[in-house]
Amino acid sequence: MGLRGPAPRPIVRIEALNGEVRNAKECTVCGIIKSLDSFHRTTSHSSGRATQCGSCYNERRRNYYREYNRTRRKQKGA
Ligand SMILES: [Zn+2]
């Protein structure tokens, strides 16, 4: 195992406005501390949660497909 990729952040506790305490952690991409619900479940990490939040995950996926479509269009030739 190397040092590839960002290290997962430790779980912290945050208190919501209604006083509810929830487990949260810092997203390694946007750096915002979000509740664990905001992170996708994954089996590739021992914590069981992705290191990036759902927003960043969607953003990255969107960018990926945009890039994918762009290169595909280019390859078709215009
Ligand atoms: Zn994020």
Draw up the topology in text:
Layout: E1 12-15, E2 21-26, E3 33-35, E4 39-41, E5 49-53, H1 54-76
This protein binds zinc ion (ZN).
Zinc ion (ZN) binds near residues 29, 52, 53 and 55.
Bound molecules: zinc ion
The tally of beta strands, per DSSP, is: 5
CATH architecture: 2-Layer Sandwich
- Give the termini distance in whole angstroms: 44 Å
Largest sheet: 3 strands, antiparallel
Mean pLDDT metric:
86
By secondary-structure content and strand pairing, the structural class works out as alpha+beta
Poorly predicted sequence stretches spanning 5 or more consecutive residues: none
Rg, please?
A: 17 Å
Remind me, CATH topology? Wheat Germ Agglutinin (Isolectin 2), domain 1
Helix content: 25-40%
Widest sheet: strand ordering: 1-2-3
Instruction: Tell me the series of helices and strands, N- to C-terminal.
Output: EEEEEH
- Summed up, the domain count is 1
**Contiguous helical run count:** 1
CATH class: Alpha Beta
Mind explaining what this structure looks like?
The chain is α+β, with helices and mostly antiparallel strands and 78 residues long. The protein has one domain: Wheat Germ Agglutinin (Isolectin 2), domain 1. Helices cover 29% and strands 27% of the residues. It has one helix and five strands; from the N terminus they run βββββα. It has one helix at residues 54-76; strands at residues 12-15, 21-26, 33-35, 39-41, 49-53. The strands form two sheets. The protein has a three-stranded antiparallel β-sheet with strand order 1-2-3, with no helix packed on it. It has a two-stranded antiparallel sheet with strand order 4-5. The protein starts with 11 loop residues before the first strand and ends with a helix. The model has no long low-confidence stretch (mean pLDDT 86). The site of zinc ion has 8 residues, from β5 and α1.
